[in-house]
Each structure stands twice: as C-alpha cells, then as structure tokens.
TrEMBL record:
One of its GO terms (cellular component) is extracellular space. This is Beta-defensin 33. GO terms for biological process: cell chemotaxis; defense response to bacterium. The keyword Ribosomal protein does not apply. Keywords: Secreted, Signal. It is found in: Secreted. Residues 1-20 form the signal peptide. GO terms for molecular function: CCR6 chemokine receptor binding; chemoattractant activity. The lineage of its organism: Eukaryota, Metazoa, Chordata, Craniata, Vertebrata. The keyword Signal applies. Its main location: secreted. Coiled coil: none annotated.
Length: 62
C-alpha cells in the first residue's frame, strides 16, 4: 500500500515538472525574440508571433 502511494506521488511530481517546463518554454520563445509577455490592453508595442502562458497576454516588443 505504501509503495502504491509513493508511486502515485512520484507520478504526480513528474507530471508537475513536465507541465512547468512547457510553461517556461512558451515564455522563453518570447524572450528569445526580444519581447516580453504583456496584457492585451497594452498599447504602443509590436506584437511578436510567439506564445505566452496566459491567453490574456501576448508577446510584445516595446
């Protein structure tokens, strides 16, 4: 029973690590293009084609 619990805990931790890596990867694309993830209501910036973590933000070069 303990072994099963530890296995489930390990799987949960691995899934969190993988999802965290993918989120950082999205922001990394924007930073590599010379931009930053900003809210959609930001004015006066050029929108770049990279993705951000939140759908309420876009990659913006100020």
């Amino acid at each position: 029973m303990r072994l099963l619990f530890l296995l489930l805990l390990l799987l949960f931790c691995l899934s969190q690590t993988v999802s965290g890596y993918e989120k950082r990867k999205k922001n990394k694309e924007c930073e590599d293009m010379g931009g930053a993830c900003k809210h959609q209501k930001t004015h006066g910036c050029s929108i770049l084609p990279a993705e951000c973590r939140s759908r309420n933000k876009h990659c913006c070069r100020v």
